[in-house]
Each structure stands twice: as structure tokens, then as C-alpha cells.
Specification:
- By secondary structure, this protein is of the alpha/beta class.
- The protein folds into two domains: about 10-145 and about 205-240, 3-Layer(aba) Sandwich (Rossmann fold); about 145-200, Single Sheet (N-terminal domain of TfIIb).
- It contains seven helices and eleven strands.
- A seven-stranded mixed sheet has the order 3-2-1-4-5-11-10, sandwiched between helices.
- Helix 5 (about 120-130) packs across helix 7.
Amino acid sequence: MSAAYTGLAGWFEYLNQDCDYEKWSQYLHKRLKEAGTAPGGRGLDIGCGSGYFTRYFQNSGYDMTGFDVSPEMLAQAEARKGGAAKPQYVLADVRKLKINGRADFAVAVNDCFNYVPPKDIPAALRRVAAALKKGGAFLFDVSSEYKLREIVGNNTFCEDREEVAYMWFNRLYPDRVEMDVTVFSRRGDGLFSRADEHHVQYIHSEAFLREELEKAGFLCLKTEGALGSAEDGTRVNFIAKRV
């Protein structure tokens, strides 16, 4: 069984097209502007994956660096750079994040902090705070307790497309969901390759994350649901500033 996002890396954006990356990016950009972050600043995309949001902000006039723990995801990000202005990508764990100087903002989108165990959340948030200027914005999200316990946990998901298929088996524990994913991808010769990987997503309450944000030196401006929705309880978005 391989680490998370080995077999999935090359297919991640393709399989997640229904999440509407463009609308998601626009939502983040709007919240950054509301928090006082203007184009031209330095931004960090923590848990950047294959780099969609990193590319979006780079193309919107920010100087971006993406960080991820998966070499396979970063290889995809490098391959997708495109454009005249190209972001930088760095292999790094948020719990050990360190940069030269200070950034104007940071984002950590699409479950990055669900992969951080509760005991390591304080250190991770302190690292983000240390990387930001005073007043710097920090936007991040987690899959909610409801989503992980009631929708994802102890359930199986499968999808079969022409070029790729996957099976996703989940086991719910009191503090986490463990996921075994099998990916079948079509090769150039028409046959399929199989990859198996293991994921662990931790369940964090909104109250716990708010408290740890404040301890790390942030002011939590607000929390809201997916894309700012008051009705969608599957995701919790945190909009914060370093004090």
C-alpha cells in the first residue's frame, strides 16, 4: 500500500472537475481581497497538490509558492505550470514549514489540515503564522465533522470512466477516517495499471481549530460553509489574519 496521492496524483484534477475549481478560486480571491490582500503580494499555497489554486493566484498577479508533501503531486504541478509567470513549488510539510522572509497571505485548500493529526495542529498553525507578515491573511478549510462521520466514514465509493477507475473504501474511527483507494489507469498500450494507496483524514471540530488559531497568533474573522454557503455543512472555511 503506497502513500496518499501516488496513483491519484495524475488524475486528481480530472476526477475533481465537478467541484468547480474556477468558482472555488474566485471565492478565495474575493475573501482575500476582503481581508485586504491586493495583487502583487507574495502568497503561499500550502498543500497545493497539483497546483490549480497556485496557478490561479499566480495568473491573478500574485507571486506564488506552492508546498506539498507528495512528490507525485508536485511533479504534476511542475508539469502544469504554463504561462509566462510561473509559480515555484517546494516539497514541504506544513508542520515544518519555513520560508525566507514573510508572505502577504497563505491558503490551505481542500482538506490539507484534515491530514494533520490533532496533536500537530498547534505546531502547524504556528509555522503558518511565522511565515506571514503582521496582518497577513490565512484562508484554509477542513471537511466538516458531519461530512467525515456521516458521508465519508464507513462508506465505499466507486467510479468507472473510460481512462481511469477507482474504488475508495473508508473506515470511521472516533478521531479519523482511514481510506484505502485503488486506482486503475489506462496505459498507452490500452492495458490498465493498478495503484493502491492509503489516506488518513482527521476529524477536527470548528471550536478546536478556532481556539488553536488564536493561540498561534491569528484572529479568526469568520467561518462559513463551502464557497461561503450558510447551508452547505460539508466544509468549514476559516478566514483569519495574523495579529
